[in-house]
Amino acid sequence: MTEPMTKNRTIRRVVATEVAVLAAAATARRRSPLLATAIVGAGALGAWAAFRPGSPLFGPVVTRGPAASPRAALTFDDGPGPSTPAILDALAEEGVRATFFVLGRQARRHPELVRRMHDEGHQVASHGYDHGILVMRGPGHVRDQLTRTEEAVADAAGTGVLTHVFRAPHGFRGPATWAAVRSAGYRMAGWTKGVFDSADPGPDVVAERSARALAPGCILLLHDADGWDPDRPRTHTVAAIPDICASAREKGLELVTLDELLA
Ligand SMILES: [Zn+2]
Protein backbone atom coordinates (compact mmCIF):
# COMPACT_ATOMS: atom_id res chain seq x y z
CA MET A 1 0.00 0.00 0.00
CA THR A 2 1.51 3.31 -1.07
CA GLU A 3 1.08 6.59 0.79
CA PRO A 4 -2.12 8.44 -0.09
CA MET A 5 -1.53 11.17 -2.65
CA THR A 6 -2.43 14.55 -1.16
CA LYS A 7 -4.12 17.37 -3.06
CA ASN A 8 -0.91 19.46 -3.14
CA ARG A 9 1.28 16.60 -4.34
CA THR A 10 -1.26 15.84 -7.06
CA ILE A 11 -1.36 19.46 -8.21
CA ARG A 12 2.47 19.56 -8.36
CA ARG A 13 2.48 16.36 -10.44
CA VAL A 14 -0.18 17.68 -12.81
CA VAL A 15 1.73 20.97 -13.22
CA ALA A 16 4.90 18.97 -14.00
CA THR A 17 2.94 16.94 -16.57
CA GLU A 18 1.55 20.11 -18.14
CA VAL A 19 5.08 21.56 -18.37
CA ALA A 20 6.17 18.37 -20.17
CA VAL A 21 3.15 18.71 -22.48
CA LEU A 22 4.13 22.30 -23.32
CA ALA A 23 7.73 21.21 -23.98
CA ALA A 24 6.48 18.47 -26.31
CA ALA A 25 4.25 21.00 -28.06
CA ALA A 26 7.19 23.40 -28.49
CA THR A 27 9.21 20.62 -30.15
CA ALA A 28 6.28 19.59 -32.36
CA ARG A 29 5.66 23.20 -33.39
CA ARG A 30 8.78 23.22 -35.55
CA ARG A 31 7.31 20.41 -37.64
CA SER A 32 3.57 21.08 -37.38
CA PRO A 33 1.80 24.00 -35.70
CA LEU A 34 -1.44 21.98 -35.89
CA LEU A 35 0.09 19.05 -33.97
CA ALA A 36 1.45 21.47 -31.38
CA THR A 37 -2.00 23.00 -30.92
CA ALA A 38 -3.54 19.53 -30.57
CA ILE A 39 -0.99 18.56 -27.89
CA VAL A 40 -1.62 21.74 -25.88
CA GLY A 41 -5.39 21.28 -26.26
CA ALA A 42 -5.29 17.66 -25.08
CA GLY A 43 -3.12 18.61 -22.10
CA ALA A 44 -5.44 21.42 -21.06
CA LEU A 45 -8.55 19.27 -21.54
CA GLY A 46 -7.07 16.45 -19.44
CA ALA A 47 -6.20 18.80 -16.56
CA TRP A 48 -9.64 20.42 -16.73
CA ALA A 49 -11.45 17.06 -16.67
CA ALA A 50 -9.33 15.67 -13.81
CA PHE A 51 -10.28 18.47 -11.44
CA ARG A 52 -13.87 18.93 -12.55
CA PRO A 53 -15.96 16.47 -10.52
CA GLY A 54 -18.86 16.24 -12.98
CA SER A 55 -16.90 16.20 -16.24
CA PRO A 56 -17.73 13.21 -18.46
CA LEU A 57 -14.29 13.00 -20.14
CA PHE A 58 -12.98 10.45 -17.65
CA GLY A 59 -16.19 8.40 -17.54
CA PRO A 60 -19.86 9.03 -16.74
CA VAL A 61 -20.64 10.50 -13.31
CA VAL A 62 -24.11 10.74 -11.81
CA THR A 63 -24.53 14.30 -10.55
CA ARG A 64 -28.31 14.49 -10.11
CA GLY A 65 -31.46 12.41 -10.03
CA PRO A 66 -34.58 12.94 -12.12
CA ALA A 67 -36.07 16.41 -11.67
CA ALA A 68 -39.55 15.07 -12.41
CA SER A 69 -40.15 13.59 -8.95
CA PRO A 70 -40.04 15.60 -5.71
CA ARG A 71 -37.12 13.79 -4.16
CA ALA A 72 -33.57 14.70 -3.14
CA ALA A 73 -30.66 12.89 -1.47
CA LEU A 74 -28.40 13.92 1.39
CA THR A 75 -24.93 12.39 1.03
CA PHE A 76 -22.15 12.41 3.64
CA ASP A 77 -18.47 11.87 2.80
CA ASP A 78 -15.27 10.91 4.64
CA GLY A 79 -16.64 9.02 7.66
CA PRO A 80 -17.33 7.34 9.83
CA GLY A 81 -15.73 9.76 12.27
CA PRO A 82 -16.31 11.40 15.64
CA SER A 83 -19.45 13.28 14.50
CA THR A 84 -21.10 10.35 12.75
CA PRO A 85 -23.11 9.20 15.81
CA ALA A 86 -24.61 12.69 16.20
CA ILE A 87 -25.41 12.82 12.47
CA LEU A 88 -27.13 9.43 12.70
CA ASP A 89 -29.06 10.63 15.78
CA ALA A 90 -30.19 13.79 13.96
CA LEU A 91 -31.28 11.85 10.87
CA ALA A 92 -33.17 9.33 13.04
CA GLU A 93 -34.90 12.21 14.79
CA GLU A 94 -36.03 13.53 11.40
CA GLY A 95 -36.94 10.11 10.03
CA VAL A 96 -34.58 10.70 7.09
CA ARG A 97 -32.37 8.13 5.40
CA ALA A 98 -29.18 9.29 3.68
CA THR A 99 -26.16 7.91 1.85
CA PHE A 100 -22.74 7.63 3.46
CA PHE A 101 -19.65 7.51 1.22
CA VAL A 102 -17.34 5.84 3.73
CA LEU A 103 -13.57 5.52 3.69
CA GLY A 104 -12.31 1.97 4.19
CA ARG A 105 -9.72 3.29 6.64
CA GLN A 106 -12.50 4.83 8.74
CA ALA A 107 -14.66 1.72 8.54
CA ARG A 108 -11.74 -0.14 10.13
CA ARG A 109 -11.60 2.44 12.92
CA HIS A 110 -15.36 2.59 13.58
CA PRO A 111 -16.94 -0.69 12.40
CA GLU A 112 -19.86 -0.26 14.83
CA LEU A 113 -20.86 2.96 13.05
CA VAL A 114 -20.91 1.26 9.65
CA ARG A 115 -23.19 -1.38 11.17
CA ARG A 116 -25.37 1.36 12.62
CA MET A 117 -25.65 3.15 9.24
CA HIS A 118 -26.85 -0.06 7.65
CA ASP A 119 -29.15 -1.07 10.53
CA GLU A 120 -30.86 2.34 10.42
CA GLY A 121 -31.63 2.05 6.71
CA HIS A 122 -28.94 4.33 5.27
CA GLN A 123 -27.06 3.49 2.10
CA VAL A 124 -23.37 2.72 2.50
CA ALA A 125 -21.24 3.56 -0.55
CA SER A 126 -17.50 3.80 -1.25
CA HIS A 127 -15.22 6.84 -1.06
CA GLY A 128 -12.05 4.71 -1.42
CA TYR A 129 -9.75 3.46 1.32
CA ASP A 130 -7.50 6.34 2.38
CA HIS A 131 -8.81 9.45 0.59
CA GLY A 132 -5.70 9.61 -1.62
CA ILE A 133 -6.20 11.57 -4.84
CA LEU A 134 -6.56 9.26 -7.86
CA VAL A 135 -5.72 11.65 -10.73
CA MET A 136 -2.19 10.29 -11.32
CA ARG A 137 -2.89 6.72 -10.17
CA GLY A 138 -3.07 3.60 -12.33
CA PRO A 139 -5.96 1.10 -12.44
CA GLY A 140 -4.27 -1.33 -10.02
CA HIS A 141 -4.13 1.33 -7.32
CA VAL A 142 -7.76 2.34 -7.87
CA ARG A 143 -8.92 -1.29 -7.70
CA ASP A 144 -6.92 -1.74 -4.50
CA GLN A 145 -8.73 1.24 -2.94
CA LEU A 146 -12.10 -0.29 -3.87
CA THR A 147 -11.24 -3.81 -2.70
CA ARG A 148 -9.83 -2.74 0.63
CA THR A 149 -12.93 -0.65 1.32
CA GLU A 150 -15.20 -3.57 0.37
CA GLU A 151 -13.30 -5.78 2.82
CA ALA A 152 -13.45 -3.19 5.61
CA VAL A 153 -17.22 -2.69 5.20
CA ALA A 154 -17.84 -6.45 4.92
CA ASP A 155 -15.84 -7.08 8.11
CA ALA A 156 -17.79 -4.32 9.87
CA ALA A 157 -21.33 -5.00 8.72
CA GLY A 158 -21.40 -8.05 6.44
CA THR A 159 -21.09 -8.72 2.74
CA GLY A 160 -23.62 -7.01 0.51
CA VAL A 161 -23.84 -3.95 2.75
CA LEU A 162 -21.56 -1.80 0.58
CA THR A 163 -23.44 -0.69 -2.52
CA HIS A 164 -21.36 -0.43 -5.68
CA VAL A 165 -21.40 3.33 -5.98
CA PHE A 166 -18.08 5.16 -5.82
CA ARG A 167 -17.35 8.83 -5.26
CA ALA A 168 -13.71 9.78 -5.90
CA PRO A 169 -11.97 11.87 -3.21
CA HIS A 170 -12.73 15.54 -4.09
CA GLY A 171 -14.38 14.15 -7.23
CA PHE A 172 -10.92 14.23 -8.90
CA ARG A 173 -10.34 11.47 -11.45
CA GLY A 174 -7.64 10.48 -13.89
CA PRO A 175 -7.61 8.48 -17.13
CA ALA A 176 -7.32 5.15 -15.25
CA THR A 177 -10.04 5.81 -12.68
CA TRP A 178 -13.08 5.00 -14.78
CA ALA A 179 -11.69 1.77 -16.28
CA ALA A 180 -10.91 0.42 -12.81
CA VAL A 181 -14.22 1.55 -11.31
CA ARG A 182 -16.26 0.08 -14.16
CA SER A 183 -14.40 -3.24 -14.22
CA ALA A 184 -15.10 -3.59 -10.49
CA GLY A 185 -18.83 -3.14 -11.20
CA TYR A 186 -19.30 0.33 -9.72
CA ARG A 187 -21.10 3.39 -10.96
CA MET A 188 -19.47 6.73 -10.30
CA ALA A 189 -21.29 9.40 -8.31
CA GLY A 190 -20.64 13.10 -7.98
CA TRP A 191 -23.03 15.65 -6.55
CA THR A 192 -25.36 18.43 -7.65
CA LYS A 193 -24.29 20.91 -5.03
CA GLY A 194 -21.65 21.09 -2.31
CA VAL A 195 -22.25 23.57 0.49
CA PHE A 196 -18.63 23.66 1.74
CA ASP A 197 -19.61 22.49 5.21
CA SER A 198 -16.04 21.12 5.35
CA ALA A 199 -14.85 24.71 5.96
CA ASP A 200 -17.05 24.94 9.11
CA PRO A 201 -18.77 28.19 8.01
CA GLY A 202 -21.35 28.01 10.83
CA PRO A 203 -24.49 25.86 11.11
CA ASP A 204 -26.72 28.67 9.80
CA VAL A 205 -24.62 29.07 6.66
CA VAL A 206 -24.60 25.29 6.04
CA ALA A 207 -28.38 25.21 6.48
CA GLU A 208 -29.00 28.30 4.34
CA ARG A 209 -26.78 27.08 1.45
CA SER A 210 -28.46 23.68 1.63
CA ALA A 211 -31.92 25.26 1.57
CA ARG A 212 -30.99 27.18 -1.58
CA ALA A 213 -29.59 24.05 -3.25
CA LEU A 214 -32.42 21.66 -2.44
CA ALA A 215 -34.58 20.97 -5.48
CA PRO A 216 -36.09 17.90 -7.14
CA GLY A 217 -33.25 15.49 -8.10
CA CYS A 218 -30.62 17.29 -6.02
CA ILE A 219 -27.72 15.25 -4.64
CA LEU A 220 -26.44 17.37 -1.75
CA LEU A 221 -22.81 16.91 -0.68
CA LEU A 222 -22.17 17.10 3.08
CA HIS A 223 -19.46 15.67 5.35
CA ASP A 224 -19.76 13.59 8.50
CA ALA A 225 -15.95 13.57 8.92
CA ASP A 226 -12.73 14.90 7.38
CA GLY A 227 -10.80 12.92 4.75
CA TRP A 228 -7.41 14.24 5.88
CA ASP A 229 -7.95 14.64 9.62
CA PRO A 230 -9.91 11.63 10.91
CA ASP A 231 -10.30 13.13 14.41
CA ARG A 232 -11.87 16.39 13.24
CA PRO A 233 -15.53 16.72 14.21
CA ARG A 234 -18.28 18.13 11.99
CA THR A 235 -20.32 19.98 14.59
CA HIS A 236 -21.61 22.62 12.14
CA THR A 237 -22.99 19.94 9.85
CA VAL A 238 -24.58 18.11 12.79
CA ALA A 239 -26.27 21.30 14.00
CA ALA A 240 -27.56 22.15 10.50
CA ILE A 241 -29.38 18.86 9.90
CA PRO A 242 -32.76 19.77 11.50
CA ASP A 243 -32.95 22.96 9.40
CA ILE A 244 -31.86 21.15 6.21
CA CYS A 245 -34.61 18.56 6.72
CA ALA A 246 -37.15 21.30 7.50
CA SER A 247 -36.23 23.13 4.27
CA ALA A 248 -36.75 19.92 2.29
CA ARG A 249 -40.17 19.46 3.87
CA GLU A 250 -41.12 23.07 3.12
CA LYS A 251 -40.23 22.49 -0.52
CA GLY A 252 -42.29 19.30 -0.58
CA LEU A 253 -39.18 17.18 -1.10
CA GLU A 254 -38.80 13.66 0.22
CA LEU A 255 -35.22 12.92 1.29
CA VAL A 256 -34.17 9.46 0.09
CA THR A 257 -31.02 7.40 -0.41
CA LEU A 258 -29.03 7.78 -3.61
CA ASP A 259 -30.16 4.40 -4.94
CA GLU A 260 -33.78 5.37 -4.33
CA LEU A 261 -33.26 8.75 -6.00
CA LEU A 262 -31.76 7.13 -9.09
CA ALA A 263 -34.13 4.15 -9.25
ZN1 LIG B 1 -13.79 13.21 0.71
Keywords:
alpha/beta; globular; TIM Barrel; binds zinc ion; 2 domains; 263 residues
How does this model look, in words?
With about 260 residues, the chain is an alpha/beta fold. The chain is built from 10 helices and 8 strands. It folds into 2 domains: about 5-50, no CATH class; about 70-260, Glycoside hydrolase/deacetylase (TIM Barrel, Alpha-Beta Barrel). Helix 1 runs antiparallel to helix 2 (about 35-50) and helix 5 (about 110-120) packs across helix 6. The model has no long low-confidence stretch (mean pLDDT about 95). The protein binds zinc ion. Zinc ion binds near residues 127 and 227.
Number of helices: 10
Helix content: 40-55%
The computed structural class is: alpha/beta
Q: Per CATH, what is the topology of the largest domain?
A: TIM Barrel
Write down the CATH class of the largest domain: Alpha Beta
Using the CA coordinates, give the radius of gyration: 19 Å
Secondary-structure blueprint:
Blueprint: H1 7-31, H2 33-50, E1 71-77, H3 84-94, E2 99-102, H4 104-109, H5 111-119, E3 123-126, H6 139-157, E4 162-166, H7 177-183, E5 187-188, E6 193-194, H8 203-213, E7 219-223, H9 235-250, E8 254-255, H10 258-262
Parallel strand pairs: 1-2, 1-7, 1-8, 2-3, 3-4, 4-5, 6-7
Bound molecules: zinc ion.
Give a brief description.
Helix content is 48%, strand content 12%.
